[in-house]
Amino acid sequence: MIPTGNLRFAAVLAALMGAAGVALAAASAHQPDASRLGSASSMLLFHASAVIGAALLTAHGLAQRPLGLAASFGFVLGGALFAGDLVMRQYAGHGLFTMAAPTGGTLLILSWLVLAIAAIWPRRSV
Question: Residue 89: its pLDDT value, please?
Answer without folding.
Answer: 95
